[in-house]
Amino acid sequence: MYAQVSDILAADLESGARSEEGPQLPSESALAKEFKVSRVTVRQALKRLEARGLIYSEQGRGYFKTATRLGGVSGFHSFTQEVRKTGDTPGTIVLERQIVASLPQDMQNHLIIQHPANVSLVYLKRVRTINEVPIAIEDVYLPVDMYSGIEGLSVGEGSLYSQIEERWGVVPAWTDALFEPVAATEEEARVLKVPVGSPLLVVWRVTLTESDDVAEYVKSTYRGSDFKLHVSRYRLAD
C-alpha cells in the first residue's frame, strides 16, 4: 500500500499536479485522510520518496518538494530564465554587496584568467532559490570599469545578465569553468539548509564577452542533489 501511495505522489510531483500547494507537502495526517490509509503507511511512502530524492524533510517542519533538477543544463545561462522555463519560481537573496580592490586569493588560485591588480570590483554574495528552496550560493565579482554606475544597480530581482545587457550592452558569450566537489561547511549548510558535510558542487568560472573581455568572475556553490551540470566552452548568447 505504501508503494502505491508513493508512486501516486511521485507522479503528482513530477507532473506538477501539486504545484499549487507550494513547496511543502501536506502533513502526514492530511495525506492519510486523502489516501484513506494509516499515518504509518504515509510515513513509509514519504520515506520512499525521500530516498528517491523527490522530497526532503526538515525536523519539526515536515516534508518539502526537492527543487527542480535542471538536467542537461550547462549551469551558465541565466539562472532566472532557466528556472522559469520549467514553470518554477526563481528567487535571489542578497547577503552582501560592496566594492573590493581585488579578487580573493582562492578565486585567483582557481581561475584561468587573472584580474588586473588595483582594478576595483563590485562584490555580490547571493543565494539563488527555486520555489523558495535555496539551491546555490553565488559569489560574483564585476569589474567596476566595465559597468559605470553599477553601485546603484538592483540585484535582488530578475536576471543580472538581462540587466547588464540592457543597461551597458554587455552580452556574456563564453565561459571557462572549473568544477570542484566539496563538503558543506557549517555556514554553507545553514544557508543551503543541508546537513554539515553534505556533498556540494563548486563551480569557479570566468565569463567573457564575444571580444574576450571579462564580464564577471563567479564562484557558485550548488546543493549536490539538485543540479546536473556539464562542462564545456559554452556559448551563452544563443
Q: In words, what does this structure look like?
A:
With 238 residues, this protein is α+β, with helices and mostly antiparallel strands. It is 27% helix and 29% strand. The chain is built from 7 helices and 8 strands. A 6-stranded antiparallel sheet has the order 3-4-5-8-7-6. Strand 4 and strand 5 form a beta hairpin. Helix 1 crosses helix 3 and helix 2 crosses helix 3. The radius of gyration is 20 Å and the shape is elongated.
How would you sum up this structure in a few lines?
This protein has helices spanning 2-15, 28-35, 39-51, 79-85, 105-110, 160-168, 186-192, and strands at 55-58, 62-65, 90-100, 121-130, 133-143, 174-183, 199-208, 214-223. The protein is of the alpha+beta class. The longest helix has 14 residues, at 2-15.
Name the structural class: alpha+beta
Overall outline? elongated
Q: Round the Cα radius of gyration to an integer and report it.
A: 20 Å
User: Which runs of at least 5 residues are low in confidence (pLDDT < 50)?
Assistant: 69-75, 230-234
How many DSSP-defined strands? Answer: 8
Kindly report how far apart the N and C termini lie: 48 Å
Sheet with the most strands: spatial strand order: 3-4-5-8-7-6
Strand content: 25-35%
Count of DSSP-assigned helices: 7
**Proportion of helical residues:** 25-40%
Order of helices and strands: HHHEEHEHEEHEHEE
> Biggest sheet, open or closed, and with what strands and sense?
6 strands, antiparallel
| Overall average residue pLDDT | 81
